């Protein structure tokens, strides 16, 4: 709120936030947090002790429901590890969620879906800065994933038995340095071309907005070369 000029000080921000019902502050890395000014606001009478109790109660109720205050042997979550998180059931559910999240804008001549049974013997080219770079596949506020569980488009297609060639064209999403020869060489020899483009946290995150929706750098040129 301070950054948007709704308030002028952290004290004003704390008062406005608590009065509006906010009970949790996200201020990673800040030594002087907004909610550290709550005692001063309370002493000045800008907020009441009852209001503070009302804000804190659901936080601790949730923490108790999660078992944070129980002995570890009473908390079922304590026994969970990657073998559970990466179980076949959970991986299949993640795959189902990913499949159902796709948005298909066009499907000229019924090109999609690519069926695994039709791919052996076909030549696939996977091109673009997002084709085989695990680091750029996650957005803002994402966890740091274990690389062994990340399937890039290239890695995923290679599991289907197709003859897959790869060309990044440019090494990062900003695509300032572009190798047209790489892309043309891979796409020209393929039966099917998968072009992987986008932005990623290198280009846009919270507090790093863009003035338009254009593809960064030479990415549009990369796409046009692949189509040709």
TrEMBL record:
Keywords: Glycosidase, Hydrolase. Gene3D superfamilies: Glycoside hydrolase family 3 C-terminal domain (3.40.50.1700), Glycoside hydrolase, family 3, N-terminal domain (3.20.20.300). SUPFAM superfamilies: (Trans)glycosidases, Beta-D-glucan exohydrolase, C-terminal domain. It comes from the Eukaryota. The keyword Ubl conjugation does not apply. PANTHER family: FIBRONECTIN TYPE III-LIKE DOMAIN-CONTAINING PROTEIN, SUGAR HYDROLASE-RELATED. This is XYL2 arabinofuranosidase. The lineage of its organism: Eukaryota, Metazoa, Chordata, Craniata, Vertebrata.
